[in-house]
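User: Hey, quick favor. My workstation is busy. Could you predict this chain's structure for me?
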Amino acid sequence: MSDFDTPEAPHPDKNSPWTRRLVLYLRIMAGISMLKGIYHWSLVLGLGDGKGSSFENAALPWQAATVFFAVIDLVASVGLWLAAAWGGVVWLTAAISMAAIELAFPQVFGGRLWIAIPEFLAIFLYIFLALMAGRERPN
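Assistant: No problem, here it is.
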């Protein structure tokens, strides 16, 4: 028997209900992350800002945060769409960072509670779905 003839470990059922729900949720969050990334890139590029408001004139912390979210949200959207483990990690990093900036550093984006609460709700829903999908897998 060669190395290529070894039997593979059984794969979890990809059609289990909680796994399907998790993948659907990841795809929805991928779309939302993509829209958020495009929004932040529009701020960087000055699209739709109007006169008198530009990226170059903004405070340095706002610029840094905007560029950070412009990049990380798009990277997270790709990973979430692929349902890759790294996508969840990048998305969690982006979501926690957005909530932290909104709550701990209100001078950057204005301390909007209506942004932080949905971020936390999305994180908790992801954790719940991931735990339920994990419980369906055989030991």
